Amino acid sequence: MAKIKYYYDTETCRYERVKTSTGDIVLNTIGILFLCSLFGILFSAIHSSYFPSAKEVQLIKENEEMAYHYERMHKDLEGALNMMNTLQDRDDNIYRVIFEAEPIPSNIRKGGTGGSEKYKNLLKNESGREDLIIDAQKKLDDLKKQMYGQTKSYDEIAKLAANKSKMLASIPAIQPVSNKDLKRLSSGFGRRLHPILKTWKKHEGVDFSAERGTPIYSTGDGVVKTARKSSGGYGWLIEIDHGFGYRTRYAHMSRFDVKKGDKIKRGQRIGAVGNTGRSTAPHLHYEVIYKNKKIDPVNFFTKDLTPEQYDELRKMAAVENQSLE
After folding, report:
1. How many CB atoms lie within 10 A of CB 111?
2. What CATH number does residue 294 fall under?
């Protein structure tokens, strides 16, 4: 039961009963409720700041576990990318060197997977770990692309391996004329004195001095691409396409034993030495062309010579003398 309150009235000199209006009661009640609510909110905020709820504790734990697994996944992806780089390096510097194949350009091997816009809408909800997820997705996409490129490269290497025996038989590897005593090589590849112009010019093949009618042999398996008779320049010329980027030319001939389109084997007779075209004496001018670039034929005279004979031939070819054309 509520206490009855009195106050002293100085005019009447009596204690009068305090009358409380309904409005005062309502206002007092509202004030008390407001203060209680305010203290409740403050207490809840302080409590939640220092003492997270069971659900929040569970979410924090799950977030930490996800971060841990993402970090492990990143390390695994880094390891896989490093292994892929090792495979690519072996592919370019070992396998492709063995089979004389061009390395795959790095811009193709490392081809990008798109800019950051590709991953802009990857996540619908923000979790605070978007950077980890997007970075992992980028690395995974890079790895997939590089794996695809490496698979294609190995397919190419497998084909080259299957054709290895054919390639070895096709690459020029012997001298085009019989020259066991090494006396027939009269002029090598490089700067030589032109016999007619009397100026120093690049000699793009080697000259073998030999009597007219001396047999000429194909230096590798291939197909006759050209068998042309001319009174100037190379004179009577045969060109053989050996495949794998290699071609050989035989100039100043006096006779053809093959014709355009014939398939021939290494060591097969294709004609005879002559003195046709712009030539000062009977000889064979021989060239090796690899991917449209003329290279020193002496580098290919290995199959029918001992190491000592090959060294001697290289020394003879290096002498800057006069060519025969």
Report:
1. 13
2. 2.70.70.10
Q: Return the closest-CA partner of residue 234 out of 268, 265, 205, 191.
A: 205
Pairing state between β 6-9 and 269-273: unpaired
Domain end among 109, 127, 162: 162
Beta bridge partners of 288: 248, 295
β-strand partners of 239:
226, 249
Closest CA to 105 of 94, 90, 93, 92: 92
* pTM, entire model: 0.55
Q: Does residue 292 lie in a domain region? A: yes
Helix, strand, coil distribution of the chain in percent, nearest 5: 40, 20, 35
More confident residue, 172 or 138: 172
List the one residue out of 147, 141, 128, 142 whose CA is nearest residue 67: 128
pLDDT in tens, 52-65: 677 777 777 777 77
The amino acid at 217: Y
Report the number of distinct structural domains present in the chain.
3
Angle subtended at Cα 21 by Cα 17 and Cα 22, rounded to the nearest 5 degrees: 140
Residue 322 is assigned to a structural domain of this protein: no
Nearest to 255 by CA among 237, 267, 280, 241: 237
